[in-house]
Amino acid sequence: MRKFKIFLTFSFFLFALSWVLIPVYYTLPYKKPPGPLLDDRLKKTYQDHLVETQPELVLLGDSTLLDSIDEPYLAELLDKDSYRIGKPGSASAIWYLLLKNNIITSPHKPSHLIIFFRGSMLTSPEYRTRGKYEPLVTELALSDDFLLQELAYTSQMGWLEEQADQFLPLFAYRQHLRTSIERLVKYKFFQKMMDVERIKIDQALDVVFGEPDIAQVNAIINAAEDYLYQPEKLDFYSQLPKSFLPEIVRLCHENNIQLTVVRTKSLTYASSEEAPKGLDAYISNLQEYLAENKIVFIDYAEDERLPVSLFNDSVHMSKNGAEIFTEIFAADYQDILANDENTHE
Amino acid sequence: MNFTSLTFLIFFLLVLTFYWFAREKNIQNSILLLTSYLFLGWYRWQFALLLGILTIADYVIILQMILWPEQRERKRWLVLGIGLNLGSLFLFKYFNFFSESIRTLFYLFGFQISTYTLDLLLPLGISFYTLKKISYLLDIFRKTVLPEKNFIQFALYAAFFPQVVAGPIESHRKFFSQIAQRRIWSKSYFVAAWPLLIMGFFKKIVIADNVKIIVDKIYLLGEPPKFLLLAGTLAFTLQILMDFSAYTDLARGFAYLLGLETSKNFNNPYLAISPTQFWDRWHITFSNWLRDYIFFPIRRSLVRKYRHRHKYLPLLLPPLITMLLSGLWHGAGRTYLFWGLFHGIIIIIYQALGLGGSWRPQGKVKMFFAWMVMFALIVFSWSIFRAPSLFWLYNAWFRTPWTATQYDFIAAWVSLSLILFYALFLIIKLLIDRYFPKSDWVQGFYFATVSVLIIIYINTGSSDFIYAQF
Asked: Residue B405: its chain A contacts at CB < 8 A?
């Protein structure tokens, strides 16, 4: 028991030290609000591009959008300027922020916004918001975004985690500490040992680990995507009020932006029979909700014109796949645009 | 409900409260049994149901074995019991593997046949509780142990939640002797538990989960150059020990808090100087099981049969069969089988060279050399174990250069630096245990430091334990 008492004393001492040192060393506030530390610096590169190119269409999605839509080709087929924001690692939180802080605040607002999603991405607000994704979120958010804090972070935390995130710097700023430790080992220690420049180390890691074996990557992607297909995530009406979707819809309506939601094809499940039971119900509820709000919905999940051979892995398309999908999508969207114009006439 | 999740910790605190308030051993055991099924059913209720059905069936079989005095009749019940347990293990774990292997074999000979595969989920803990129950059935048959007639105690042996997912494969003698009495809270339980719990969390959250990132990146490459593969394999060597020994430490720590002592599973396995010594130090409860229920029976039967001719067979076959089965137990895959075969072969080679059993080289240099060779063999064996396929492994070891570009060289060194960083905490622990085993100040400071690291590295979701997948 003596050892335990000594352990407690040392722990108390180290924790007390961390309370003082961490906020001072990183010049961070104590107490921290739960969730990420937001400030009023905003990344506006997307808005700048909008102003510069004045597109009519904006396409929003994650890395799969980059690999499935050929932007110049789409513009050519539709005869309309488009801007593709395929942000790798993004999901509904980032799409909401892009819309709120870059698109609708822009002097040039597009008339059409098209969001590409899969699984329950649209109603899983916390998906891809923590850990390595957190900086992607914070660079697009303002400090007063309480909806973001609530939906993506605090509502997902238990009481204990929320308290630790506010009052325990060791826990709250653990990402900073981890990065410092990793940098110390990766750069300082290694640089001294091998006399290699820091930029070369980063390049080496990017190049060597940048092209993994596709068959194995699929297994990892599928495991990560599993999150989107859990039974509670597929309960559309219980997820909807907790998600960014109603806010995205509202922002589009208020700004006269025609929203279109596109469900992309994914090979996570080889066939619809293998897909989770609740997925069909989820999609039909989503469709119903979108229809009520006059939002166009296009579903490519079961499209046989997009065979396995057009994919590089279970979610990303090949160059050839991108060309074919762009043509399919352009044809479908042209009909939508024509209908839209008829309605306006 | 992973051991490192908050849900489990709340669950465990509730169990502890009810358990220590109970004043009767039967109530204590019933609480443990109920919560063990709740724990397993938390993952999927079907897992708990399967264990329940198999446990009832085994209990009936044991009662029949007690009832029948004739050896022949008892043997029938034993065969039924082993068949039932191995049959369910085969069905859930190996059916698809063998089905696909048969189809491949026929295809190699130019025949195309269609075989069935089943869409079944591997029930959690089945590999572990099957071994526990088989050993118990065998010992009842051999009359080396008195049968446990109390159903709750018997069922608890199979389902005890700190051990059900990934062991240790506790000996029934040790377990029954403890649950046959009422447990009364003692401070000594806590004294034994807390260092294990801290080390368990530290090994899993700080070391295993972070080293896993390096391992996964390297083993995801199509054809990693040898130097990079070596770095990845060294990382996996560290990861698998940390992951599995973390689970064991946590299981032992939680069991101690329930007043039950469970067996050690690791004893510095990477310091072994021979394969026999490695298996005496790695997954000790499993090694003991293999030794008692596979290795010795095969050797005894071969010695009897080939006493006068083919004298080499009792030396060759038992390690080979035992290690092949050990590989197969780990998973239904060719890499696991090959891993087992590799260990079987090195045991035979060491024995043939007279380096088996309690062999120890004379002098520090020879000792160091022996350790180096054994460590290299262990590391190589882990590359077989972790490889996505044998074809991938062959390409990586025999067809790629040491380093293809300067970038490979840098990436490998960065990976090695990170591995060294994480391994450093263990090396320090080893040194502290060796030079300051009784210094509460040094030990206390070490545990406080690793606790700080646990908080820094804690994640909202920790990856599953490797051995929970077996």
From this structure: 207
For chain A, the domain total comes to: 2
* Structural domain boundaries, residue A290: 46-143+213-344
Q: Could you tell me the pTM of the whole model? A: 0.83
Cβ of B407 and A9 within 8 Å? Answer: no
Contacts of B460 in chain A (CB under 8 A): 130, 161
Cβ distance B456 to A178 less than 8 Å, yes or no, reads yes
Mutation test of the interface with chain A: which of B119, B229, B417, choosing the one with the most A Cβ atoms within 10 A? Answer: B417
In this structure, are A108 and A219 located in the same domain? yes
| pLDDT in 10s for each residue of chain A, 345 residues | 888 999 999 999 999 999 989 988 888 888 888 888 888 889 999 999 999 999 999 999 998 999 999 999 999 999 889 999 998 889 999 999 999 999 999 999 999 999 999 999 999 999 988 877 888 899 999 988 999 999 999 888 888 888 888 889 999 888 889 889 988 888 877 777 777 788 888 888 888 887 666 666 666 677 777 888 888 899 999 999 999 999 999 999 999 999 999 999 888 776 666 778 889 999 999 999 999 999 999 999 888 899 889 988 888 899 999 999 999 999 999 888 887 766 655
Residue ending a domain, among A209, A240, A262, is: A209
Mutation pick from A130, A181, A209, A218 vs chain B, by most beta carbons of B within 10 Å, is A209
The ipTM estimated for the assembled molecules is 0.79
Q: Do A10 and B444 touch (CB under 8 A)?
A: yes
Shared-domain flag, residues A58 and A196: no
From the CB of residue B35, how many other CB atoms can be counted at a distance below 10 Å?
A: 20
Pair A295, A276 in one domain? yes
Q: How distant is the Cα of A36 from the closest Cα of chain B, in angstroms?
A: 14
B421/B415 Cα distance (integer angstroms): 10
d(CA A177, CA A166): 16
In this structure, what CATH number is given to the domain that contains residue A116? 3.40.50.1110
Burial class for B274, CB neighbours closer than 10 Å (0-12, 13-18, 19+) = buried
Nearest Cα residue in chain B from A202: B411
Q: Does A231 share its domain with A326?
A: yes
